[in-house]
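Much of what follows relies on a compact textual record of a protein's fold. Think of the row as the fold of the chain written in a discrete alphabet. An example makes this concrete, so a full record is given next.


***
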Amino acid sequence: MTLHLQAFFTVLSLINPFVCGMIFDNTETGRSRSERLTEAAKATAAIFVILELAALFGVRLLKLFGISLDVFSIAGGGVLVWMGFSMLRGSQAGSTDGSSLTPLILFAASPGTITGVITLAVSHSRDALPVTALVSVAAASLVTGIVLAAISYGVFGTGKPGFVRATGQSLMGLIVMAMGTQFAAEGLTHLFKAGGV
């Protein structure tokens, strides 16, 4: 159960629904509620499909290119540590004007998020079906969809980042850093064991 919760919070932190909400609010300004809800559903579906495909086929793709799962865990863990550090410092996606969902999708399903999902699949499942990664992606996508729908309904505004949002992002960054360090350490452990060290 703890493993699933850790995976869920890792994926949720990488997608970062709060920043997604700010991007969505900026790009969908001026549209009707029904249009915003439709766009929110499209964005959520795109994020879900991209990350589920990464969880399902990412490991196979690595094998196709001859990349060791242990090496990828180390490299992926390093990427997550870097992303977590950026979040901890308060770095956020820039505001984007316009009515395109591309910036939102590229942020939520970024290469870093895809790396995190594949790393989860590798670390938690190895050669088996990556159930933990698949469930985590589904749950995190659902939360993101709820946040976007709430913004569409005007339940809460995003506005300028306040203390609560900044603290939440820092906490997410710390979680991502910790999980990245754990993935890298596990990859190193498996690599040394395989090499007989």
